[in-house]
Amino acid sequence: MSFDGTEIGGSPQISCSSVFSLAIVFAALREFFFRCSYCVGPHAVLQCRSHREGAMNVCECAGFVAPLAGNPKAFYTNGSVRPFISCQPGDCLSAKGERMQTVFSHIIQKRFPQVNEDVATDALAYVLESSLAARNGMMKLLRGVARDLPPLRFKTQQTKGAIRPDMWGYSETELRVFVENKFWAGLTDNQPVSYLKHLATYTQPTILLVIAPAAREQSLWRELSRRLLDGEISLSQGDAAPGIAHSFATQLGPILALTSWTTVLSVLEHATVDDPGARGDLVQLRALCDASEVDAFTPVSPAETSDQRTPAFMLQLSSIVQAVVDCGVAENVLDVGGLRPQSSWERIGRYARVLSDRGAGPGVWLGVHFPLWKEHGTTPLWALFLGGDFGRAQEVRPLIEPWAAKNGLLAVSIGDDVALALEIPVGEEKAGVIRSLADAIKAVAAVLAGLPIKPSANAELE
């Protein structure tokens, strides 16, 4: 099957020939491209052997010591101390101290951006299979979650019924671990409940380990927790494990744990300090992870520009917002008199006032907020209370934040403003979605009903 947009389980796939070609490229790059311009460890570099390969400076770390000359914000290269710019352990830095991209990550982002999660999974599995030191590092991380885990070997591209976890960890022939690798794709319908139910049929302990960008850990954990709640699966806090953001035992038996790509790669890099081949592979994998950050520009594919579902979805969201506002006005929860719809490069929606039995309360903006959607991933729809006399965020925040926390909703502060996520019920017809969101607005109005009534201040919004 060629890479032509054909999907298996909802995800575009790389053809067998493409996977083979990528494997050849990956193996070749580990020999010919730089390990890392300068190896940055948890503190500083013990030794670097600098020479030239093509136009690249190369150094190999011999170990890690205390901060260089007592300065934790410096690294050593070419006989001189350079400032330590913002970077993570294992970053590749140029002679100017700039983070560098490997050719491997460049090829993936340019030619196969839609499947970078699959490529990262295959690369991680390759490192774990080819390096005993890396595998031992992975086991150390996993045994921080479940100390009785036996030694494991990892495989990819395994399917069982409707589930297709990224990596399977086997002890001999018995399954003990699922590893699900994420960048920014959403969870599938089977994640995590079906995965946990499958693991529950094996000898315990078993683990479902989810790896995601550090910036996504909290929002992803909220979604995982919500799905377990919907599936009536209870959680109990597990032991704190180094490098694991969340670890909970489920009533089914398996443990659900969440960590970041940064943590996993740092653990493996530390474990492979004496294995330069594995460290070179990990440098390339880290570069791919860095290139996959949500803020990085990803070349646009023909499939994306021609996918009419994208504009259809945005128009659907706009119609939902309009219908919810109309419903709020009809039910005397919102007032839009003298206020206008509003759009910018970052958001599309409209202003309204929240009403109570005593009159008009604070002003609110309702709509699709792209930065908040991108950052938190919870929902595209948000209620935004601006700072100042119109939105009165300074008065709204003390009421809305504890109420949201009590009800499992997300409220975030953005400078002087405060925003509340309006979660869209999935699998519902349009009427059900509108009713649910209108009820959410009505609940917000009830929370804010105790605020004093003040003269409206909205001249700039009319």
Structure characterization notes:
The protein is an alpha+beta fold. The chain contains 13 helices and 22 strands. The protein has helices spanning 16-32, 103-111, 116-130, 132-143, 193-199, 217-230, 261-271, 276-291, 302-305, 309-330, 370-376, 393-406, 430-448; strands at 7-8, 11-12, 44-45, 51-53, 56-58, 64-65, 74-77, 80-83, 153-156, 167-171, 174-181, 207-212, 235-237, 246-250, 255-260, 334-335, 341-343, 347-356, 359-369, 381-385, 411-414, 417-421. A seven-stranded mixed β-sheet has the order 9-10-11-12-15-14-13, sandwiched between helices. Strands 16, 17, 18, 19, 20, 21 and 22 form a seven-stranded antiparallel β-sheet that branches. Strands 1-2 form a two-stranded antiparallel ribbon.
State the gist of this model.
The chain has 462 residues and is an alpha+beta fold. The chain has helices at residues 16-32, 103-111, 116-130, 132-143, 193-199, 217-230, 261-271, 276-291, 302-305, 309-330, 370-376, 393-406, 430-448, and strands at residues 7-8, 11-12, 44-45, 51-53, 56-58, 64-65, 74-77, 80-83, 153-156, 167-171, 174-181, 207-212, 235-237, 246-250, 255-260, 334-335, 341-343, 347-356, 359-369, 381-385, 411-414, 417-421.
